[in-house]
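Title: [Solved] Transferrin receptor 2 3D structure

Original question kept below for reference.
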Amino acid sequence: MAAISSSLTEHSPSPPHPPYSIFRRRAQGNGKDEGEEDSRVEMKLSQPESEESLMSGLSSDVTTLVLQQPRNFRKAVFYLTLTSLLIFTTAFLLGYVAFRSLCNYCGDTDDELVPVDDRADLDYSSEGGRMHLGELRDMLRKYLKEEKIESMVRRMSRETHPPGSSEGNALASEILQNFRKLRMDHTWTDSHYATLQFPSRTQRNSLAIVDADGELLEDIPLGNPLDYCAYSGTGTATGGIVYVNYGRKEDFDLLRSLRVSVGGAVAVARVGGGVSFAEKVWHAQQAGLGGVLIYPDPADVPQDPRRLGLYSSAAISEHVHLGSGDPFTPGFPSFNHTQFPPTQSSGLPLIPAQPISANVASKLLSQLTGPECPRGWQGRLPYVHCALGPELSSGEGRRVRMGVYNIMRPVLLNNIFASIEGKIEPDQYIIVGAQRDSWGPGAAKAGVGTAILMELARTFSAMVENGFYPRRSLLFTSWDAGDFGNVGATEWLEGYLSMLHLKAVAYFSLDRAVLGDDNLAAYTSPLLADLIEGVIKQVEHPKHSGHTIYSYTESLENSWRTHIVKPLYLNSGAYSFTAFGGVPAMELRFTEDARPYPFVNTHFDTLERLQEMLQGRVGVLGRSVGELVGLMVLRLAHDHILPLDVTCYSDTALHLSSQLNKFSSELQARGLSPQWVFSARGDYHRAAETLREAILNSDVQDERMTRLYNTRIMRVEYYFLSQYVSVVETPFRHVLHGRGEHTLSALTEHLSLLRSNPRLFDEARFRRQLALLTWTLQGAANALSGDVWNIDNTF
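Solution (posted by the thread starter after getting help):
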């Protein structure tokens, strides 16, 4: 945000003209200056005191001329004509300006006219009475062009463009130039030096079957040498093979209950299951395994015989850092001028990890012996009898050996920014962003999101040129190194962490915006959940014509909220903004229920394959996402009071209270009381309701009062960042969405041990968890009430 603040001072208005001008006169004929005496002529530019005095002066002069002798008659007529022309021109210009501000048609960049409905949303008139919210919605829809989105995706997916590569730098330069062509108020870059991991150019990652003595029996080709897991541990791992299903915590718990020996073995895990690659590797490391191989199972992708063979040969690359940002500068920014001591994230794995194809996984798993797979673990690999291992059936002592030789390399990252300055509250920003980089062609991973980002920037720029006056500033961002764990975005957050809750209204991520065409998913902070309800009632479903997204979703078995609203997840482009920065964030996506587009993070992620799956409607779906995000941005940039639901966490706190009530007898037996939690929950609920009622009954035209309310609303997520854990050791400090001992999920999981396994319940640890969560909730209630100094607030 420092970059934002400094950039806002770059374009100061030009100084006023001096009261006189100095002209240099040239001598005739030779082109040289005349002598010193004649070289300068000083001319004073006198100005009348007012327009009235100007017209009065002109009138008296003309009258004098008319009354002069007849020989001056022609001169008088000339001056009279000139005066009349001046008066007419002035009146015409004033009338044009006044009329244009009331005009119900605005020309777009294609010289078309946008019809405006005067009846729409008359209660939401913008500043100066220029345009209503209904007019702005029509303008937004008119300017969004699906063909421009498709064209940009095609341009981006012609080749790979990882961070630091010539292709990546060329793309960054192109996006910066495109932003500048839009005549934004400000454009700039934010650079960081980050440590990224890449495949070694001299030693390829390997996989082989060896005997008991470690002698090579069979080399197993891995396919594309560029398929890898960034931030994997390096070296070799040798052992038996254990099939771990999706590699979730419950999967490892089940293996433990079945007494499957996993120590030192190599895990084979399926992609998916609701956990990231990083979580799979972390769970395997915690269970004592020596390495992890991760493959995409055909059972988890669309059943299309035309693509099955291609998919079976694909390996999916993804990072395995259990965190985000540069893992060698955890909690602080990777600016090149910082001198922080060497450190590294605790989320970096110690064991090697490597992606493999379904064909390679089939070859390995078909040789396993041991207990049969539990129900639901059977995938759809060809010729595989589902056993858990760890022994191989083809010979005593046979083992698998994997080798990972990735190397770390410092890379200069460039985040690209463009902003439209707000007219009333320019220091408050609504941020829209998308990652730009991609290991492969990246049509779905980075191309669609970047294309929507550029189209939204173009659309809002055109709207401003045609009468839109945003109340708050809009910030469009193209992030670098998203494939490595949202490194570019996280480093920027770390650089401006102390002021985010004062500057950032909300963040919208466009990453992976189109992976299907049937269902809309909103991975969101609860504060933004109500905002999306309004826009899905206005946007037509891109696949089911005649239905809005809302009406189509309501026609299904579940309500729209159950079907659309999803919790933020670790690898989301929006997660760090909320869990680390305390900013409400959302990531929108069209997808399928369980089997989305299967080629993300592979070298097969091209526009042609994405179009094939979506029947040529990438532009249509991209435009729908752009319209949804654009309408939400419009509300946030337009409304006097930010339309965020501050009461949303009351239900979360109530759920915690009910969980504690279930274990009241066990807690009382240990001298523990949840009374303070109940009190804090009640205080937060009353503070939120009081603020909501105050806003409903206030005058929204009172700029001072709305500013105070908006400041309190913007800080709600920030209030839930625990102040009692280190941002370096525990970066995701949010007690409801974060990760670590301080979170609500950790507390409830620990609480469940009172009945499932009382011997593992740690009373001292639980007391600490309960105390930290209680005071964080109480602090949020105090801050939301508006008087943080009074610890005895009447709620």
